[in-house]
Write a structure and sequence with these properties.
Blueprint: H1 11-20, H2 23-44, H3 46-52, H4 56-87, H5 93-96, H6 106-110, H7 122-153, H8 158-170
Helix pairs in contact: 1-4, 2-4, 2-7, 4-7
């Protein structure tokens, strides 16, 4: 279900637009895209060499954690690109409210690493740590701007809520 920017929440579009135009967004976007590039370089270069030196159990952990890393980064990059589209006027704030643009894969991205993760190469561990911190920050932003905001958009007056139900039922 998409968040609707209705007459009860005209400020929502302004919040989304203001964030997209902020220095915080610019820094977060740069950090995220830099991390994507660093991760790609590591996984295609030094990470391959590091993975060949691992025990069987650690190699499985490497495969699993590298998938978690790329999933995190894909989710972060997608979210940031939507915010950039709002910033550049290519997407209306209302469009950014659609559920398909929410940060996803939370269970995968925030799950605890396997015990074998302690045997992983430092390069991968550093990228996992950095991506985990960035994912948590973006998740916080996503929840504050979109998910919790949707709850705030619901009228708090029981009378208004009842009128909305009647309007929905009878058109």
């Amino acid at each position: 279900m998409a968040i609707e920017l209705n007459e009860n929440a005209p400020w929502r579009a302004a919040v989304i637009r203001d964030f997209a135009a902020s220095e915080l967004f610019a820094r977060t976007f740069d950090e995220g895209m830099t991390l994507v590039e660093e991760t790609a370089a590591y996984l295609d270069g030094g990470g391959r060499a590091d993975a060949k030196l691992l025990s069987r159990g650690a190699a499985y952990a490497y495969a699993g954690e590298s998938m978690r890393l790329t999933t995190r980064l894909m989710q972060i990059a997608s979210w940031l690109l939507v915010q950039r589209a709002v910033r550049e006027g290519d997407m209306a704030p209302e469009g950014a409210c659609d559920d398909r643009y929410r940060l996803g894969a939370e269970a995968v991205c925030t799950a605890e690493a396997s015990p074998e993760a302690n045997d992983l190469p430092m390069g991968l561990l550093e990228l996992l740590e950095r991506s985990g911190r960035l994912y948590e920050r973006v998740l916080h932003l996503d929840k504050r701007m979109y998910r919790e905001a949707a709850e705030d958009d619901v009228p708090h007056s029981p009378v208004l809520a009842q009128f909305d139900r009647l309007k929905a039922a009878f058109g």
